Amino acid sequence: MLATEGFRPLRLPVGMISLYRADLPTGVLDAAVVHPAKAVRGTAAESRRLSPEQWSRLLGATANPKFRDAPAELAAEQAAHRASGARTGVERAPDSAARLPASPAEIAAMAATVPDVTADHRTYAVWWIAALHDNAETTRQLAMSPNLGTRRSVARARHLPPDVANLLAHDEDRIVRLYLTESCDDAPADVLLDVWSWWHGSFSFPGRPRNHPNFPRHDLLRFAQDPEPRIRLLALDDHASDAALVERFSRDPDAQVRSAAAGDPRLSPESAVRRADDADQAVRSSAWRNPALPPTVLIPLLLNEHSAEDAARNHRSTATAWRTSSHLASPGSTTVRWCRSLPAWNSSGPCSATTAPGAAWRRREHSPCTSAGTNTSTSAAACEIDALKQPSDDTDPRWSQIDDLITEGRRIQALQRIRDEFGGGIHDALDLLNHRYIRLQQDQSKDFTTGN
CA triplet 142, 148, 153: central angle to 5 degrees? Predict the structure, then answer.
């Protein structure tokens, strides 16, 4: 949970909430940099939006050298980048003594030396134009230049006067319009919609243009019938959209639209189940992450290596499914009924009467692995449970990667790895996980996170 001043406590499952957003409240990043889960702190570090103070707090919260080296290098790299005055999409100045033009005549003279480029040429903003971005008159003068490279350089400004932003928003060169939506917080809503229709985003400006603060959130229902799927799905972003539209889009012939609906929490559980078995992988992945998905469907997904990563990002994977799969409270519980419905889990598996919660094997007074006549039917997992109860130097190589998953809070992945390594059923794996967790907590308590 992220507790931020002025905000309600916020649950932050990795991958569900973007820390890259330009409009993200500062308090969320403040909480993320000291979050107990390494994956959350890592995402905050990779967002490239941390202040020096936030970097200091993040590194202070990452005491384990094994996990500290990478963010420390990233912090140093970004500090050097900041000190150099460099910006994404802007070329570096030739040297620190490079002189900027001061008068309109000098600006015109230097602008005349900017090489012209063709529409398909990749460009960076000219350093001296970027250095003058805060000068409204200069940007106004250069935005009217016939030189394509010059106009693209102006479009990289963080802020522009309304008339300049509007002029560039209607530039004939679509890369000028793209740069405006990526870099300028004053880009008009109409150009954001235009660029969204053909641009699928980049790692340099993650989320743009759809996460731009000016991207419209009203009057989007008019697109619900649009023939272009990428435009049609925007109707879901309208504040006036309802569950009926989500249901309709979940049956859309286009996979992009179905995927958007499949991840919408307003989707009914029944439709979420249908989309979890969609023919398109992207649609299935969206549905697996949707908290509308019932626990009885989510649990098998958590235990399947092909769906576990997406399912673990579902809010329910920590709030409901994990507790259910961890405790299997009674033979008549929902999870046991689900368990018994799986063909692969027959009467000798973890759902059988002899292995159900409360069965004798969970209360055995001695280990079958240490008796004189070891039972050959005893699973490797059961024997390992017994071994974990004894003193050990913890040098067993089989636990190396599993221990990393446990200390990082990735219990779902640890559970799957335990089953792969030691066999047995879900109860055996859960017992192993619990015993190993206790041992690691005693020996390595400072390394623990409270992730998923």
Answer: 55
> What tokens were used for 168?
């560039």
Structure tokens given for 345: 């889990």
Distance of CA 233 to the CA centre of its chain: 21
How is residue 115 annotated by DSSP? P
Whether residue 192 contacts residue 213, with contact meaning beta carbons closer than 8 Å, is answered with no
What 3-state DSSP class applies to 150? helix
DSSP reduced 3-state for 441: helix
What token pair was written down for 163? 């008339």
> 441 vs 65, 239, 433, 435, 450, CA distance in Å?
18, 46, 12, 10, 12
DSSP string, 295-337: HHHHHHHHTSTTTHHHHTTSHHIIIIIHHHHHH--STTSHHHH
Q: Which residues pair with 159 in a beta bridge?
A: none
For residues 308 and 343, give the distance between their C-alpha atoms in angstroms, rounded to a whole number.
20
Q: pLDDT tens across 42-73, in order?
A: 878 877 778 888 989 999 998 887 778 778 87
Q: Give the C-alpha separation, 413 to 402, whole Å.
A: 8
Per-residue pLDDT of 372-425, as tens digits, reads 444 433 455 556 555 655 555 555 677 888 888 887 767 667 777 887 787 766
Closest CA to 431 of 391, 387, 392, 393: 387
- Are the CB atoms for 269 and 253 separated by under 8 Å? no
- For residue 344, the model assigns a pLDDT of 34
Of 209, 238, 211, give the one whose Cα is nearest residue 226: 238
Please report the sign of the dihedral spanned by the C-alpha atoms of residue 81, residue 85, residue 86, residue 89: positive
CA distance 272 to 275: 5
d(CA 100, CA 234): 43
Look up the pTM and report it: 0.56
